[in-house]
TrEMBL record, chains A, B, C, D:
The lineage of its organism: Archaea, Methanobacteriati, Methanobacteriota, Stenosarchaea group, Halobacteria. Its EC number is 1.1.1.343. NAD(+) binds at residues 7-12, 67-69, 95. Belongs to the 6-phosphogluconate dehydrogenase family. Substrate binds at residues 95, 118-120, 172-173, 177, 268. Catalyzes the oxidative decarboxylation of 6-phosphogluconate to ribulose 5-phosphate and CO(2), with concomitant reduction of NAD to NADH. SMART domains: 6PGD. This is 6-phosphogluconate dehydrogenase, NAD(+)-dependent, decarboxylating. Gene3D superfamilies: N-(1-d-carboxylethyl)-l-norvaline Dehydrogenase, domain 2 (1.10.1040.10), NAD(P)-binding Rossmann-like Domain (3.40.50.720). It is an enzyme of class 1 (oxidoreductase). The keyword Oxidoreductase applies. It comes from Halomarina oriensis. One of its GO terms (molecular function) is NADP binding.
Amino acid sequence: MQLGVVGLGRMGRIVVDRTLAAGHDVVAFDIDAEAREEAADAGATPADSLDSLAAELGEAKRIWLMVPAGDAVDAALSELEPHLSDDDVVVDGGNSHFEDSTRRAEETPAAYLDCGTSGGPAGAELGFSLMVGGPEWAYETLTPVFDAVATGPDGHARMGPAGSGHYVKMVHNGVEYALMQAYGEGFELLHEGRYDLDLESVAGVWNNGAVIRSWLLELCEEAFREEGSSLGTVADRIEGGSTGTWTVQEALAQEVPLPLVYAALSERFGSRADEGRFSRRLANRLRYGFGRHEVQRRDESESRTE
Amino acid sequence: MQLGVVGLGRMGRIVVDRTLAAGHDVVAFDIDAEAREEAADAGATPADSLDSLAAELGEAKRIWLMVPAGDAVDAALSELEPHLSDDDVVVDGGNSHFEDSTRRAEETPAAYLDCGTSGGPAGAELGFSLMVGGPEWAYETLTPVFDAVATGPDGHARMGPAGSGHYVKMVHNGVEYALMQAYGEGFELLHEGRYDLDLESVAGVWNNGAVIRSWLLELCEEAFREEGSSLGTVADRIEGGSTGTWTVQEALAQEVPLPLVYAALSERFGSRADEGRFSRRLANRLRYGFGRHEVQRRDESESRTE
Amino acid sequence: MQLGVVGLGRMGRIVVDRTLAAGHDVVAFDIDAEAREEAADAGATPADSLDSLAAELGEAKRIWLMVPAGDAVDAALSELEPHLSDDDVVVDGGNSHFEDSTRRAEETPAAYLDCGTSGGPAGAELGFSLMVGGPEWAYETLTPVFDAVATGPDGHARMGPAGSGHYVKMVHNGVEYALMQAYGEGFELLHEGRYDLDLESVAGVWNNGAVIRSWLLELCEEAFREEGSSLGTVADRIEGGSTGTWTVQEALAQEVPLPLVYAALSERFGSRADEGRFSRRLANRLRYGFGRHEVQRRDESESRTE
Amino acid sequence: MQLGVVGLGRMGRIVVDRTLAAGHDVVAFDIDAEAREEAADAGATPADSLDSLAAELGEAKRIWLMVPAGDAVDAALSELEPHLSDDDVVVDGGNSHFEDSTRRAEETPAAYLDCGTSGGPAGAELGFSLMVGGPEWAYETLTPVFDAVATGPDGHARMGPAGSGHYVKMVHNGVEYALMQAYGEGFELLHEGRYDLDLESVAGVWNNGAVIRSWLLELCEEAFREEGSSLGTVADRIEGGSTGTWTVQEALAQEVPLPLVYAALSERFGSRADEGRFSRRLANRLRYGFGRHEVQRRDESESRTE
């Protein structure tokens, strides 16, 4: 099979490499010339524009987009559109919002597969987990590629119609936030608690046979090995949050309570409140109001313009 | 009626003053001589020891302890014990744990009333809310004093047997934590949100007829008036937490979920994590682990010994 | 001043009655003829259509919409539009989303005031709390009416530009959810806890001088008085939730954590999960998976089609 | 090595079988004669009392207790005590509270190892994860047995002094509650959400390469395979909760916030509130109080005595 890959960042390159390794042909495009050259070195046919990528693919095109979610997807689709017809298949392997995917599936002349991709850079060796939404025939057509890019035949499945792949990936990420925070709470208590513990050793023993063993826990073990039991200079600041926010938004729409996912998302927001949490500042002041407890003041020298 | 008052801090003095104002006699003791003199100036008979306070009160003693919860209560009771018999009544008006009160009620030769006291310094003018546990006859005997110290006859009631007064006060405080944080969340969203709002004005309008009007909201209004809409130098640090902790502990014992009270208590704990929350630091690091997202590092110069 | 009032339900009638009582003239319209007649009996001039209401008001119209948030507001505005010019003022006193209000303010030929209204039916006697957004001149023009409908001059204020009134009301309602649940948690612990308590008496004492006294706590006291300490047949089911949902959505957009408001909203959603919470069902089953703990099964006879 | 095993339930039998399989000798006791016979059939030397077990073991006894946490441990230790001296080692492999373990370590004449054991029945084949607290020499002495009972040398480690093994296991279980609920929230949203999904397939794809893959997620997959995507008759009721409660209690003592663990524990408590949650019932009633929203009533026929 011949696959066009658009976007040759870390994740796109894994798609290229695993597809090539499985014996397929790859036509690769990125706006960055160096990325194109590197893909060519790896065995792909480089294309210096989306037009030439489309030309190279001929009839019954199979194109995998691995570009940042948002405008970049629409831009690529818009440029590809003149070249697409209904026997072509476009895969969006990024973290798009499922409603964007539903819209794109309707607007695109080709069959459209929204493909939630999980596994990160570690997927280079192991393969990804792929959650795919869209027409059954298109999913089946791409199966050889999915087998290659995923961990194997068990690493991908069609979830349902358009949007369902990114929907399931969105929820996956919401759960991911909660799992990280759940492990974090456990290790926080161990770190602050009664014993002086070697947290790498704790994580290691847990990863061998304990109920809570997991890949994330292996990453905890790695983190403690590399940063030390006190996590050294790692800051109390968690970036990101869009897929978790989408998960909570969708749960509001479905009237499904997600207290753990919400709590985990809140920790991210709270970690970025550089001026301190206003709600806590008010509570501090109210304790003076009703009980004449001393107001805790921040150091003038630390105070920043708000 | 003649009342002995032990402990002449801010709250004890309110008990003295309101009892005197209602036409009763007060014998007042504090380990601090100056506090005794001030109470004498206010019209109380000063006693320079618990022994002389007991001697002054004669038979059928009525004694109100207003000392810090914990060892000070046991110390006072232990010193008073030789002077007490079963027609005496001792009131503990502090924030004792209800299980201590139950124990003390059993150990003390006098009738024992545990009296949860709410209202803070503002109670000087308005009177307190008093939640009383213990024998009915003792509660009734003290009614003239309770009428004086409380806002009036509606401001006190017997909750039930020994410990129930402090039990209800403990729960009151748990609710108090949650209410403060609930208002705090609302004002935080208004402060961070889309409009540039005068929060004193918001609180003021809410306090006039809105569903959420309350005394705590009046204190919010006062806080914004005195500190400004951005709360000036008020720090993100909330001290205290013992009664909220007791509330959650008791709820664990009763298997009652208290998500809001717990969340409010957690904000206090979190506000005092000067080194940052370990759980968030781990989540920050894990995002690198699975996604190669850049690790946020804290400034070396800020880093403190852990 | 002459005020047109559109919508004569419970809240609209309070606007009519309080405006009349303050000596102003009211032209009143509702699609329900009976409601119009009742308003006429109360002293208003009835109008049998929006056209005739507009005609009756002449130049410099002042119109208060008190219709259900959503399409009804757009329908009324659309019908009024031909009669409106830029020296007219329209007030939306309902629970509209602030983004709808911002849009309507732009689309409407008249000056537009979004007016968050709190206080419920109890506002009939006391007056409402009014949070107003929109042009300053329009707010000032309507001041005599706001004085009448609110608790008085302190019961209303201009929050800021278009949308800010409904924005502040939205947040008010989010806080309201959390306050109700906070009191609920306290009373749940008292109800399930160690003592057999009279919850009306507890609420009563708290309402007299305690830190947590509030109007909502007075409503708790009333609830226990009318339903009993065990709340009789009152069901574990909380309807509503739109303004709380909006509050959480806006907080997500602002990256402000609202753990208490979210927890309170989650209780509403959870209370309506008639088939049980799926997450708990899975946890139940997982305990068998790792520990062979017996799976709790629901009675076949209770099981419903999902 | 010769090991005495006390308690031949499911977990105790795994200890026996894995120790025998590694070529060690086992002396086995249980109060149930049938359990003793089955252990004898498996190759252990049965003992019909703790006295005879102790006699059989001779000098330098190594005894593994696998009895229910609580009084059974104290009872076994008390019966063994006359036979123990300081060159003996007793292992408590159950879910004891770490403070009990600390106390027992002080009271027992033998060296005492508290050994948190995770993995459940699945450990029969794979081996357990063992978190051990107590004297280093005792831990080293038992290493051959730990190698056999655990997944291997990586499946056990000495956490620190007395109590630390059960402390780490307690925290493990707190995390376990949160992980289960986190997955539960994700699957609840997928179940209630926009697409008709095959949850076994979702879990399967996630378990192949996704960031959130884990053993608990494999158990989710198994649960959906065996019960169906809607979980059939599995009830919304989660039993258990003691180790999660201990975790929260300890976190209160350490002033560490655990919002996710607490939320997960709350779901357990809430799932067992057969009369409904009182807090929600009050909120339902309050909505009538301030807004005249209809009170939801429970069916008289359903109402039960409270």
